[in-house]
Amino acid sequence: MLVEPIGFLLFSTLEGVAVFALILSIFKVKMTPYLWQAIFVNLIMNLQSYLLREEWSLSYLVPVINMLLFIFLLATVVKIPIVWSGIMTVTGYFAYAVIQSVLLKMLFGNLPVSELQDGSLKGYLLQSISAAAGLLISFMMYRKGIGFAPNFKKLKFKEEYGIVITLIILSLISTSIVLYYNEIWLNMMFFALVSGFFIYYAIGKEYRDD
């Protein structure tokens, strides 16, 4: 009986570390100083994820809560200002979702997502390959200096501050709605568009700050 929850925690934690690595590498922040904190927060994430999915059937809320915890992690441990923590989290989390959606289509074609849940070996395989891909991409990006390095302290205009916060909140709400319908192509398009938008914003902000 313990095999399923242990497997869930193990593979989900591996995946969570990969997401965190991608979030940081996109913005040229090194992950290794925060590795143990990331693992600890990911264990908390995965415990609540397991309860939401298995006990209350609210799996579509899991990514939203996880993103809020990532924002908390970035703001309190990495010391990134809260608005930039939101931008980084949404950008990296959605980029990882695109990677996983592409791998899902490549590996399993039109296999229903329901068959990848509930301790499925195919689900664990997808998580493992996605995490490996995310970590590899993160490592290569940081090693090659690919990414954006905006001045995190420069988000001073009140109007801009309010607009960005509103967009982050709308992204979180929209995530629950999109995942409720659980259509792979819709997920891929939505995650790509939102991640692309915040990457575009980060590029613009980096140039404006120079």
Secondary structure layout:
Blueprint: H1 3-26, H2 35-55, H3 62-76, H4 82-108, H5 121-144, H6 158-181, H7 184-209
Helix pairs in contact: 1-2, 1-4, 1-5, 2-3, 3-4, 3-6, 4-5, 4-6, 4-7, 6-7
Structure explained in plain terms:
The chain is mainly α. The chain is 77% helix and 0% strand. It is built from seven helices and no strands. The protein has helices at residues 3-26, 35-55, 62-76, 82-108, 121-144, 158-181, 184-209. Helix 4 (82-108) packs across helix 5. It is globular and about 45 Å long.
Describe, in short, the structure shown.
Helices cover 77% and strands 0% of the residues.
Q: Flag low-confidence runs.
A: none
Shape descriptor: globular
Report the order of strands and helices.
Answer: HHHHHHH
As a whole number of angstroms, the C-alpha radius of gyration is 17 Å
Structural class based on helices, strands and sheet pairing = mainly alpha
Tally of DSSP β-strands: 0
The number of helical runs is 7
Question: What would the keywords be for this entry?
Answer:
mainly alpha, 0% strand
